Each structure stands twice: as C-alpha cells, then as structure tokens.
Amino acid sequence: MTTTPVAPFTDLDAAPATPDFGPATQLTCRECGTSYSLGAAYACVECFGPLEVGYDFSGVSRAVIESGPQNMWRYSCLLPVASYAGDERNLNPGLTRLVRADNLATALGITGTLWVKDDSGNPTHSFKDRVVAVAQSAARRLGLGTIACASTGNLANAVAAAAARAGQDSVVVIPSNLESGKVLTTAAYGGILLAVDGNYDDVNRLCSELVGDPLTADWGFVNVNLRPYYAEGSKTVGYEIAEQLGWRLPQQVVAPIASGSLLTKVDKAFREFVSLGLVEETPWKVFGAQATGCSPVSQAFRAGHDVVRPVRPDTIAKSLAIGNPADGPYALDVVRRTGGAIEDVSDAEVVEGIRLLAETEGIFAETAGGVVVATLRKLLATGQLDPTQETVILNTGDGLKTLDAIAEHVGPTATIAHDVDEVTRVLAEHHARHR
Ligand SMILES: *Cc1c(COP(=O)(O)O)cnc(C)c1O
Ligand SMILES: [Zn+2]
Q1: Lowest mean pLDDT among 8-17, 77-86, 287-296, 322-331
Q2: Worst-scoring range by mean pLDDT, 137-141, 416-420, 431-435?
Q3: Do 226 and 205 fall within a single domain?
Q4: CB under 8 Å to 135, separation ≥6 — which residues?
Q5: What distance in angstroms lies between residue 126's CA and the mean position of ligand 1's atoms?
C-alpha cells in the first residue's frame, strides 16, 4: 500500500481543527486497487489508472437525508466532503425538478412513465454546479486557494461563479471556438478566462501540463487533480432521481456522455442506494447518448470494443465534444452490465430534439439535452429501449446558453405591421398550415 501525506488544511475561515472528509477514507486506483491517502492526486503511481474516492459509510438513512437542506448537500453523508454547516460559500446546487413528461411520451409512443430530470435549474444552468461544489470543498480542505478547470463551456460557468461566490481566485481554460453564451457568461463572473486556439482535448492537455508546474502549486483543477472528488458530485443526480421517485429506482435512464463520468456516477448512486438499503433492488438499464460528430463511446459500443478510440470532434453539441473521454471504458462497462445501449445522433437530429422537448414540455434544453431526446427517439425506433417501462432522461443544461445552435431554425411566425387585419391573416394561414 502506497500512501502520500494529506496536505495541511488551511480554510479561509471557520476551519475545523482537522480536515473533514466526511465518510471518505482514501483514494483507490480503479485499475489495480492501490490505495492512497486523501489528497490532490488523480492518477495511480503504479499503473496510471484513475483514482476514485473510497468510503466508510455510517449513519446513512432516509431520515438523515430528508432532514438535510433543499440542495445536493442533503447527501453529505454519501459525499467525500460535506459543505460546512451554515457555510454559504458555494452555490448550493441540486435538488432540481423531476418533471413528468406525458406530452413527450405521447409524441414518442412511450406508454410507460417518462420523466425529465431537469438540471438546467442549477445556479449556472447546468449539472456542472454539482461537481464543482464538491471539488471546491475538497480544494478548501487541501489548502488550494485557486480553483481552475479545463472546460467545454458549462464547467467554465460553474467554476467562475462558484469562485466568485466564495471570494476565491479562478482560472478557467476553454477552447476559443465555444458558444458566445458560455464565454460571455463565464467572463461576467470575473476571474481569469483563457481561450486557447485548439479543441477541448488540447485544452485538457495544457491543463495536465500546468498541474505539474510550480506556477500552479496553489491551484485545484477541479477536473484534473481534484477529479476524484469532482466526479463524485455527479452521484447526486442519481440520488435525487431515486428520492424524487419516492425512494425507488427507475427502469431505464438515458444520460449524455462527454467524458463518461456522469453516466457512470448515476449508476454508482443507484448501486450505493441499494447496498445501503435506501431503495429496493430493482433492475435498471443505463443508456448513453452522444452526437455523431463526437461519438467515440457510441462507436466502441457498436463495434463491441472495450477500448475507446479518440476522435476529432465536429458537432454543435460542444458541451459533449470530448474526443478522448477519460471515463469512456467505464461508461461502456456500466451500459453493458445493466443491459442498456449507446447511440449517437446527427446535428440535425439534435436540433429536432431540442425543439421537440421545448414544444411538448416547455423545457428549453441546450444541445446536450437535444442529444438525449434525439437519442431516446432513436433507441425507441431501433427497439433498444422499452417504451412500456418507466424512463428518466437527463437534461443537463439550459438552451439559453446554446442559442447559436437553433438560431437558423426558429423565429417569429410572421413579422407584421401594427394592424389587427394582419393578425387575422397570419392566424388563418397558420391554422391552415397546421390542420
Ligand atoms: C459536462 C456535461 C455533460 C457530460 O459530462 P461527463 O460527466 O463529462 O460525461 C453533459 N451535459 C452537459 C450539458 C455538460 O456540460
Ligand atoms: Zn493502479
């Protein structure tokens, strides 16, 4: 067993006497099982495998969770770091709505109950606030004063906003071709924003090099050297689905895949709830959704491969455009173990998916949500997803951040003069067209 010393705890205020990692006990290599002390480490020294947080859960019950705050910190007993009691210095994301989507179900020929877990309701309008909140708390316990990230857009928003809220410095690194809705909102929160000429995989490589540089000794890259903690934040999506369904599991879940982390953590959340006796063990299938222009995990699934061959992304679904997904092989494992499937959809189908969800349920999703809805449709058409079962689909972000994607496809019904006759004419034409 290899151990590394835990960095001294230097919180900005209200610091407990010793670092409090809640129920987390160590970091463990997913590949070879070597354990390490809790610290800002992410790769195994022995085999370069990814490290994952290990726990010794105790005192977990429905009552403890139900008496917690109305945000993701109600699951503190299942997370590596609890937000401090009474501490306001994070965005307190989570407990987003689970919307019953009967109209969408009817439109798609689904007879089982269909739900949308709508994470666009988080403070910066994507599920990334959850992962950042956990990484931010871990950074404090590890004495890292600056939070940083390599981002495809939503993470940039979440890190810059969380740092602003906590009075911390932030450094956000993005590809320079991101949607303006994500660049401008990130810039508005302040902090340092570096736009790199290149794609996300170039950005990620740059950040991996920066992690070893003395320049960044005080930085916690939420999705690089804090990745084991960060990734655990995604479990709260799964916990919430089960709690909001009345402490039970759905039969099918459709999740988008970028790095593959979210998909694997939803499954992990369900497994933990079962093993802790919080829900009855009922079978569930996990399905993955990608855009065809960046579909390395879907391609590997179709080909029956265990390894994921990197691709060069070219899609409007930029939040999912990771050509070399770190958790791709683990996402494949989860989908195959649970009996799910992975599909990918064209950019035109993504736009149709965004519009279908908006028109049927009044939920305006970003491109990643369009990928999920379009993939749901494809999984149904190909007989891979059962229309009679209860299904939850994830909308992970808000369409206001990716307006560019639909700008050419929607607009006013008509542009008219200030004249009642013109309204009459337009309505008549509209009704004739939609009869
Ligand atoms: C980051 C992101 C995802 C996927 O995250 P991974 O855990 O990397 O697979 C999905 N949807 C949106 C909107 C995102 O920003
Ligand atoms: Zn290892």
Answers
A1: 8-17
A2: 431-435
A3: yes
A4: 147, 220, 222, 223, 226, 229, 230, 233
A5: 9
Q: Does 48 map to a domain? A: yes
**For ligand 1, atom 12: residue with the closest CA:** 396
Indicate whether residue 216 lines ligand 1 (CB < 6 A). no
Pull the structure tokens for residue 254.
């459709």
| Domain enclosing residue 360, as ranges | 98-125+234-405
Q: Which of 230, 255, 279 is the last residue of a domain?
A: 230
- For a mutational test of ligand 1's pocket, the pick from 200, 259, 354, i.e. the residue with the most ligand atoms closer than 8 A to its C-beta, is 259
* Judgement on whether residues 111 and 248 belong to the same structural domain of the protein: yes
Instruction: Give the count of alpha carbons within 13 A of 126, CB side only.
Output: 31
Q: Is the pTM of this model over 0.90?
A: yes
- State pLDDT tens for residues 24-41: 999 999 999 999 999 999
The Cα–Cα gap between 410 and 276 comes to: 48
The C-alpha atoms of residue 162 and residue 358 are separated, in whole angstroms, by 29
What are residue 342's DSSP bridge partners? Answer: 288
- Please indicate whether residue 128, judged by its CB atom, sits closer than 6 Å to ligand 1: yes
